[in-house]
Structure formats: structure tokens, C-alpha cells
């Protein structure tokens, strides 16, 4: 089994592979998407119930969003190896969690259109991220494991009043 296959199966397709192309932001006409400011996102995620959800600190969610999308709601990454695409602020994968209408054998575990994960209103992205964490934990995201896990993440929420 190749490393690419093994990583995909263990994380259920939540983040891009190391061989993925860089972030590409789709041009959506007048709407360019929202890139949150750090404290704005911290307050939004807290209001949407992520602070302490399943025992996960708000700082962990903030780190995840930073390393996956740079806090950008319209971040899109295509993985040619996995033949799938990661969408939105949490880079939720079309193979397992959302339907983009083009990913072969997609599961759509969150029962949501991938385009819904690109909205400035991140309510659906948060709901899907909660479902992923409920089933697999934050380790579903390889980038979180590599860049956030077991690190001091206090800077992600410092001075935000959350």
C-alpha cells in the first residue's frame, strides 16, 4: 500500500496530500469570499459552539483553520492523487464529506454541497467539521496533526476576549 493511500484511509480525506497543488481560490465574480481576521474568527467559532466542543479548545480550531485555509472561506485545494477536492475554511474533502458533483465514489458524510462550505457564513462548514470531529477527532486533518497537535496554541486566541 502506498503512503498516499494509507494517509487517505486513516484520515478519511479531510486535508490535502503533500502532493496536492497549492491553494487556489476560485473567482466567484463579485463575491471573492471572506478571509476572517483572527479575533473575528475566534468569536465566530465560539458563537457557533466550537469552543470546548468534544473537549477541543478554541485555539485548536483556530490553528486548524489557519493551517488549512489561512482563515479563507473560499480556499479550494485539489488533490490529484486522491481525485478529490478540499473546500472552505476547514478544507473539508469531497471524497468523504461533501458533494461537489464531480468526485468519483463520493460519500457525502455531512449531507451538504461542497459549495455550501465556501460561503462567508460558515455555519454549515462548522456543522460538518463537528460531524467529522465526532467521528474521527481532529486527527482527521493531517495538517492539524503536523502543525497544531501538542503545541502551544494560545497565540491563536490571545487578546480576542474569548
From TrEMBL:
<dbReference type="InterPro" id="IPR000974">
    <property type="entry name" value="Glyco_hydro_22_lys"/>
</dbReference>
<dbReference type="InterPro" id="IPR023346">
    <property type="entry name" value="Lysozyme-like_dom_sf"/>
</dbReference>
<keyword id="KW-0929">Antimicrobial</keyword>
<protein>
    <recommendedName>
        <fullName>lysozyme</fullName>
        <ecNumber>3.2.1.17</ecNumber>
    </recommendedName>
</protein>
<keyword id="KW-1015">Disulfide bond</keyword>
<dbReference type="GO" id="GO:0031640">
    <property type="term" value="P:killing of cells of another organism"/>
</dbReference>
<dbReference type="GO" id="GO:0050829">
    <property type="term" value="P:defense response to Gram-negative bacterium"/>
</dbReference>
<dbReference type="GO" id="GO:0050830">
    <property type="term" value="P:defense response to Gram-positive bacterium"/>
</dbReference>
<comment type="function">
    <text>Lysozymes have primarily a bacteriolytic function; those in tissues and body fluids are associated with the monocyte-macrophage system and enhance the activity of immunoagents.</text>
</comment>
<dbReference type="Pfam" id="PF00062">
    <property type="entry name" value="Lys"/>
</dbReference>
<comment type="similarity">
    <text>Belongs to the glycosyl hydrolase 22 family.</text>
</comment>
<keyword id="KW-0326">Glycosidase</keyword>
<keyword id="KW-0081">Bacteriolytic enzyme</keyword>
<feature type="domain" description="Glycosyl hydrolases family 22 (GH22)">
    <location>
        <begin position="110"/>
        <end position="128"/>
    </location>
</feature>
<keyword id="KW-0378">Hydrolase</keyword>
<dbReference type="InterPro" id="IPR019799">
    <property type="entry name" value="Glyco_hydro_22_CS"/>
</dbReference>
<dbReference type="InterPro" id="IPR001916">
    <property type="entry name" value="Glyco_hydro_22"/>
</dbReference>
<dbReference type="GO" id="GO:0003796">
    <property type="term" value="F:lysozyme activity"/>
</dbReference>
<keyword id="KW-0732">Signal</keyword>
Amino acid at each position: 500500500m502506498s503512503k498516499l493511500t494509507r494517509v487517505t484511509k486513516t484520515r478519511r480525506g479531510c486535508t490535502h496530500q503533500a502532493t496536492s497543488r497549492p491553494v487556489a481560490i476560485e473567482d466567484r465574480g463579485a463575491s471573492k469570499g471572506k478571509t476572517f481576521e483572527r479575533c473575528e474568527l475566534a468569536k465566530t467559532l465560539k458563537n457557533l459552539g466550537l469552543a470546548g466542543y468534544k473537549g477541543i479548545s478554541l485555539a485548536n480550531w483556530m490553528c486548524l483553520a489557519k493551517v488549512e485555509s489561512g482563515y479563507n472561506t473560499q480556499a479550494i485545494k485539489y488533490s490529484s492523487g486522491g481525485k478529490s477536492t478540499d473546500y472552505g475554511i476547514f478544507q473539508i474533502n469531497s471524497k468523504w464529506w461533501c458533494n461537489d458533483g464531480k468526485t468519483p465514489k463520493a460519500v457525502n458524510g455531512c449531507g451538504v454541497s461542497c459549495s455550501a462550505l465556501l460561503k462567508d457564513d460558515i455555519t454549515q462548514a462548522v456543522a460538518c467539521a463537528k460531524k467529522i470531529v465526532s467521528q474521527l477527532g481532529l486527527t482527521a486533518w493531517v495538517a492539524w496533526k503536523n502543525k497544531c497537535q501538542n503545541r502551544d496554541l494560545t497565540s491563536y486566541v490571545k487578546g480576542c476576549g474569548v
